[in-house]
Every structure is written in C-alpha cells, then in structure tokens.
Amino acid sequence: MILASNFVPILAPLAEGDPRPLNALLDFAPGAMIWTFVAFVIGLPLMWKFVYGPITKALEERDKKVEDAIVAAEVARKDAEAAMAKAKAELEKAQADSRRMVEEAMARAERQAADAVRLADERAKAELQKARDTIAAEKRQALQEIRAAAVDLTIRATGRLLQQEIDAGKNRPLVQQFVDSATRSAG
What we know:
By secondary structure, the chain is mostly helical. It has one domain. Helix content is 89%, strand content 0%.
C-alpha cells in the first residue's frame, strides 16, 4: 500500500481532469521510481534480445560488409596496379620490339643497297673487262689482217721491183717472219 499511496498524488490530478504542469513530472516520487526501475529491469533483457541484439547484429554485419568492401577495394586497387604495371611492361616491350624491327629493316635496307652497289660495280667491271677483251681481240685480229696485208703488199711490191713473178706460197713464211720480227722490235 505504501506504493499505491505514492502514485496517488501524481495520478489524482489526472483523475480530476485538471491539467497538471509539466514540471510535476520532475517531482520526486519514490514509488514511481521503484516501479520504473522494476519495469526497466524486467524490460531490459527483452529489449536486449529483441531490440539491441538485432540492431547490434545489423551494425556488426554492416561493419563487416564495409570492411569486406575495403578489403575488396584494396585487392582491386592492387590488381589494377599490377595490371597497369603489366600493361606498361608490355607497352615498353612492344616499343622495344618496334625499335628493333625498324633497326633490322634499316640494316637490311643498307645491306641490300650495299649489295646492289657491289653487284652494279661487279657488272660494270665485268662489262668493262668484256669490252677490253673485245677491243683486244679486235685489235689482234686487225693487226693480223694488217700483217697479212703487209705481207701481201710486200710480196707484190717486191715482185714489181724485181719485175718478176714471185711465188707467194714459197716466200710468204719468210716475209711473215720478217714482219713479225719488225713488229716485236717496234712494240
């Protein structure tokens, strides 16, 4: 009953219908305090199980998801850096390959140009040698023809000087030998 008497002064104005000032809630009422404490103690496990537990669990799950997202973002960042490093290495390799290919092409072109110059030079030398050989052969043939004509002319001139018919077949080797010795001593 002691407890009921403590609530009477608080609840009396409510029963009468008179409005009560707000500061009356702040008035010290030991009975109300005890029942409030009892209700809190009884309600605390229920609130812990049905309110705070799920909220705590949801917050922990959210924190775990955020941590997982941070870890995943870090892994993705590292993967992206690795991919970027790999792409950079491949780009450098491709650039080095292209430089090497250009250098090889230039070296090949220089070799081909040098080969073409050398081949043209060899052809020119061969043509020049062929022309020299042809000229030398024609010169030898012309000299032989001139010697033969000189031998014939000498035989005819001698025949006219002596006013006799000279046997060309018999005297030709002798005149030929004379013309050859004269050519050697002149050359």
